[in-house]
Amino acid sequence: MRQSSTHTLLLTIVFLALIAPVSLAHQPVCEFADLGAGTPWRVPDPSISYAYFGNMYPSGDVDYFSFQAERGQSVLLSLSIPAISDQAVFSPVMAVYGPGIEAGSDAQLPDSLEIPAGQNAKMVPLGAAPVYWFEPFSRKYFWNWDDYFFKAPASSTYTVALWHPGDEIGRYAFVIGQREVFGGDLECYQTYSSYWTPLEAGRNPYRDRFVEMDADRAPVVDLQLIPLAGGGYNLRVQTLNFIFTPQNIDTDPVPGEGHAHLYVDGVKIARLYGEWFHLGALPAEAESLTVTLYANDHSPFTVDGVPVSDTLHLVDMMQGDAEA
Questions:
Q1: Segments making up each domain of the chain, as ranges
Q2: Pairwise CA distance, residues 97 & 220, whole Å
Q3: Phi, psi of 293, rounded to the nearest 5 degrees
Q4: Which of 78, 88, 94, 269 has minimal CB crowding within 10 Å?
Q5: Domain 211-323 has CATH 2.60.40
């Protein structure tokens, strides 16, 4: 048992050493579920450099990325395309919309694009042609379009929409932010190489599998957030009809066993393998904290199609503490 644990630890250390240089360039995140207008990727901090490896799928797909910017803040927006053998360069386009933006005369937006009332959109200039480039850390080739620096006209939330004007399917890397900070999604690292394989019509690239459960047998999760005197919090994740099985990760799903994902305002920040988790701090503007239960193969447990989860509304909690 001790020898097996030591072997696993060594493999983990080697793996982290290999991926560290890549993460210093951009923090990679992968599109495991389609990014719709109602479910955009919420960029945690647009000053930090993220590379979102996404899919234009199915035909006519539009992906959305939202970020909070301060008035006058300059935010890098860029697009890279994985160079896939024997395939022409995939050429999607991008637009950015939000309050205070002057509508661009060149904006050729798809009919399906959802822009809130009172907001305008303009195209993100990508240049006449991409540049073929070898990325030394990952040892992969890309087609890189021109960088664009968006200057926020107001302190507000802005959204980038990405689509292909010919409704073609393909892979892309949306890059936002410049500041290099160690990090990224471990699951994305593990599937990184798949982004150099072509998409196929009729073959869904997303992880929208799920484990549907009867209501009377389904797992249940309940959250308790405990403030600590020295700062930070302890999060207690109590479950019913469910056990944590970190030793079985990436194996076939078994009803009632697996792991959990922790989200702050819809942004995944951790994978949980037990009842207790320590949070050093929460963003001052954070509104919600959610934990969702997943099976060993990363499929969410659902009841009537709804993921098994629990959400704490932080504003209500803080008001309750103040009144007490």
A1: 10-196, 211-323
A2: 39
A3: -90, 135
A4: 88
A5: yes
Confirm if 171 and 195 have CB atoms less than 8 A apart. yes
User: Where are the extended beta strands (E) located within 25-106?
Assistant: 27-30, 41-42, 50-56, 62-69, 74-82, 93-98
Cβ neighbours for 65, distance < 8 A, ≥ 6 positions apart: 35, 40, 41, 43, 52, 159, 160, 162, 174, 176
The DSSP call for residue 138 is T
What pTM, to 2 d.p., does this model score? 0.65
The residue count of the chain comes to: 324
Encoded amino acid at 294, one letter: Y
10-55, pLDDT tens digit by residue? 444 444 444 444 434 688 898 887 888 877 888 999 999 999 999 9
Percent of the chain with pLDDT over 90: 52
Provide the β-strand partners of residue 175.
51, 78
- Quick check: helix, strand or coil at residue 285? coil
Please answer whether residues 55 and 168 qualify as being in contact, where contact means their C-beta atoms are separated by less than 8 angstroms. no
Q: Are strands 50-56 and 27-30 parallel, antiparallel or unpaired?
A: parallel
Give the separation between CA 234 and CA 231, rounded to whole angstroms.
Answer: 10
Q: Does residue 8 carry a pLDDT above 70?
A: no
Look up residue 50 and give its amino acid. Y
Q: Same topology for domains 10-196 and 211-323, yes or no?
A: no
Domain 10-196 sits in CATH at 2.60.120.380
Structure tokens at 16: 């982290």
Q: Are strands 41-42 and 140-144 parallel, antiparallel or unpaired?
A: unpaired
DSSP state of 300: B
